[in-house]
Structure formats: structure tokens, C-alpha cells
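Hey, quick one: can you model this chain's 3D structure?
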Amino acid sequence: MSTPIRLGTRRSALAQAQSGHVAAALEKISGRRVELVPIVSEGDTNRASLSEIGGLGIFATRLREALLGGECDILVHSLKDLPTAIPDGLVIAATPVREDARDVVITRSGIPLHALGAGAKVGTGSPRRIAQVRLRAPGAEVVDIRGNVDSRLARVESGELDAVILAAAGLSRLGSETALEREELGLAEWPTAPGQGSLAVETTADAASDLRAALAALDDARTRSAITVERAILEGLDAGCQAPMAAHAEVIGDSVRVRTIVYDPAGDRRIGLDVTESLNGGYIRGNGSGNDADAADGADPNHAAREIGLSVARRLLEQGAAELVPREQP
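Sure thing. Here's the predicted structure for all 330 residues.
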């Protein structure tokens, strides 16, 4: 009987749920049992605000140590929480099909976010969402919160908060059901964090060939191209995964449309671009903002995707984004 594949995961309900989805798919592909190995990360024990600790890779560092130390064979991460720098000896072996990348507003009343009255309390721990709320609902009071999905929903149900902002993908993966009202925020006007809605399956560079082949079967090319663009923007800005910026890329045929915004944390200013580029190399068009992007170089769509993202980051910096984005910390 073949040995099981050990999947390292955080202990949170959401991490366990998304790891379970990957485990089930991997079992079908590989014919091997996949067992979950719960690992406690710093992000699970440090209760400080994400705006203070988010640039440290707190949800990934301990898991990666476990992988490199042989405690598990693969990891499943929420890609939006993963630093852009991949440690030596590790590879992202698969990016499964992306879930809904949107944010949703959860309220008791069903009043849209922009219509919430002065003093309404909106809960989120994300610097990007905080800046977006200040633009969309300037009269609202933003409450910096941590905690799992259920605890956040409970704070709305109890009346402690008037609204919370959550990732649609997390609600879907958890199968969360609530009587509360839900408002989906469109990606055109409310782009989300680089990689939001996507998972990353990570393993060691010297993993067995049969394991690498099984993981490769989980990889979705369109998702990988899109998230490669988004994460390259983050990399080019030299910003942490909790920076007040948003980037969403949509692959359409052999081109990719990128909407990205860098926010002033106070909500007073923003710098954005909306461009479409070819993943086969060459400029397609800009959508009403800025100068032509540099041509993506090479036929490999993932190489081209990274070059597109870095080009977009350079253009944002040229427009003053460096004044708004805190630098990534080691």
C-alpha cells in the first residue's frame, strides 16, 4: 500500500476546508490517500492588527519550515496571504481553478455599503479594504478586526458592527449559511488583493516526480497567468501582501486585462491603471489610463505575465505610488 501524501495546513476552519478540497482532488488524481497535518502559524497566535504584522508572511513561514523540515509533503496556502518571494528549495507546483475573487459586504439591513449612515461601524482588518471603505463610505467608522468568518458574522448579528467585509471565496469554501444580507462588490470598481480567491499548492523542488506530476494536473493555466500578473505588480511595488493596493487580472483568450489601484491609507488619494496586454508578447491597448505598457517578452505566457505585472508596477511608481505603499519587510 502506498504511503499517504501529507498535506500541511493551518488549523483554521477555512484553511482546513480549502485543504480538504485540494486533498480530495489530489486523491482522485494520484490514487493515494492524502492526510492533513495541522500546523500552527504565527498568524494563528499573534492577535495584533494585520496592518501591523501583515508584511511578515505570518501565515506561511511556519508552514514552510515544516515543509522544508520534512514534516509534510505539500502545503496549501491562500495565495493572497503568500509573500511574493519563494524560499530556495520550494516551488508553487499548482494553482487550482480560482474561486470568486470578489469581496462581499455582510449587513443585517441590506443597505449598500455606500449608503450606510454616518457613524456606521464596518469591520475589516485589511489595510486595502480600510482604504476602500473610506472612499466608498466616508461617513462610516472602520473597526479593525481579526477572527474567523463565524466570529465576524456574529459581530454583525449581535449589532456590534453594522457590516463586515469578507472574501466571497472564503464564504463559498466554508459553505457558510447566514440570514444576514449580502452585497457583492464588483471587481471593476472594487478590485481585490493580488491572488484573492486562489490557492497555491507548494512543495519542495526535489519532490518525487510522481507527486509533481499529480500536482501539475491540479494546475489551471488561466488562473496561474492571472495571479502571476497580480503578484508581479506586488513584487514590482516592493510591497507586502497587506499593502493598501488591489490588483485583479482577467485572462481573455491570449490577452489579459489588469485593473490595479494603490490607495492612500487615509482614503484621500488613489493611483490606478486599467490595461490590456497580450500574453503572447506585444502591446494590445490601454483602457483609458496612462501610457502604453512595455511589451511582454517571450512566448511563455507565465514569463509574459510576470513582465506585464512588473511593467504595470513601474508605471504605478512613475505616477507616485511609492508615496502610498509601505515597503515589504524581510
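One thing worth noting: The mean pLDDT is 87.
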